Amino acid sequence: MTKSRIILFLTLLAAAVSGCDPVETPPSPRPDPAPTVVKSPVEILAEESVAPTVSPPAETTPDIASGTSEFDRSPAVDSFLEKFDMLSEQGFVPTLRRGSTGIGYTLETMLGIEENNSPGGDYMGMELKAFRDDDLTMNDSEKMNLFLKEPKWTDGLKSADRVRNYGYVDDNGRTALYSTVTIDMSSHKFAFEVEGDSSKVWLTFDGSRIAFWTREILAKRLKEKHTETVFVSAHSRGKGKAEEFHYYGVTWCREPSVDEFIKLLRKGDVMLELRMHLKESGAVRNHGSCFRIKQNRIRDLFRYAIQVRP
Question: What is the extent of the structural domain holding 216?
Fold first, then answer.
C-alpha cells in the first residue's frame, strides 16, 4: 500500500471512530452588498437635468401674403384679390352710378356681383365696402350700414299704433317715423340706454324703455354680416356722372367684436335708423331698423385689420 493510501485510510478510520463528518473546505465569503445611498430631494433635483423653458412665440399680426397664417386659407379673400388685381391694373374706370353710392356699385358691378340686400356678405359670404381715399380716416360725418335688426318691442303697441304714438306728420302728409337714434336723446325723444352689464341695449322714448336688443342677438348679426369684411380704397377724380375711380387698396378685416360694437355705441359712433310710415291703407311700411357706424370707426369693430394691397 502506498503512503498516500495509508494516510487516507487512517483519516477515514478516525472520522468513523469520532462520529464526525469529514472536514470540508469552507466556501469563500461573499462580498457585502454596496450600501444604499439615500439622497435628499435637494440632491436629487440638483443632479437631474432640467429641460429649458420654452417661451411661447410672440403673437404677430397675421399676414396672408406670407402664407404662414390661418388667414391665407380663406377662399373668399383669395378669389377676391385675384379679381381685384385685374381691376386695379386698369387704372381709372368710369363710375356706373352718380352719387355717393357709385364707388361701391361700380366695384361690385366690375367684379360681377349683383346688388343685393342679403343678410350675409356680398362676395362668397364676405362683405365688401368701398371708399374714396381718406373717408376711413378723415371723415366722421359719413356713415355706413352695418346690419338690419328689429328690436323686441316691450311697449305693448301694435305696429300702426307705434308709428302714430312716436311719429310725426312728414312733408308728404304721412304719419311717419324716420329718426336717427344715438346714445343722446334726439329731437324725436329717442335714445339708446345700455344695461349696466351690457347684456341689453335699450331703445327709449322720452326716457322710457320701449324695446331692446340682447347682446347675443347683436353678436349674431355682426357675425352673420361681417365675419369677413374687405375695405377697398380708391382714388377718385371728376364729379357726378363724370367721376372715375382707381381701386388700389385693400384692407381685410376679420372677427368682429360685440364688445367693441357696444363701446362705439356708448361713444355715439354707432347709431340706429328707424324707417317706417303709414300707408294710405293704414298699414305700416317698414324699411327695417338699420344699425350704422361712422366710416372712420369701422375698423375698430374687428380684432384683425390686415392691409393686403398695395
Answer: 70-309
